[in-house]
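Example record used in the benchmark description.
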Amino acid sequence: MGLSMGTMVAGWDDKGPGLYYVDSDGERLTNDLFSVGSGSTFAYGVLDSHYRYDMTVDEAKDLARKAIYHATHRDAYSGGVVRMYWVNENGWVAYPLEDVGELYYSYHPEIQLTNSVDSPLSVNTAA
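Model output (structure tokens):
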């Protein structure tokens, strides 16, 4: 079995935005959204439930963050960080890396990780 890869390529030309998936055999597909990698099924679950064509940039960033979070939280091979770029007619913007472990607690505020002498690294749920 050889190495297999899947890559998303994003860009902008005189026709507007473009998003492509390129596999290890050179096959190219174009679509409005893709999820690539071993955690992609988890990301697609979020994308399929919440994607809309008319999303604002902020809504799209929030959805991308949540989809990547779900992929990396549930798939040990997905890296554990959210790495996002926004491609527009003027170029691209790289957003700061976000740790999925920290995002977990922002998506689940009812759970707090504590580090006390009596119960080191116990998980408390707020009532």
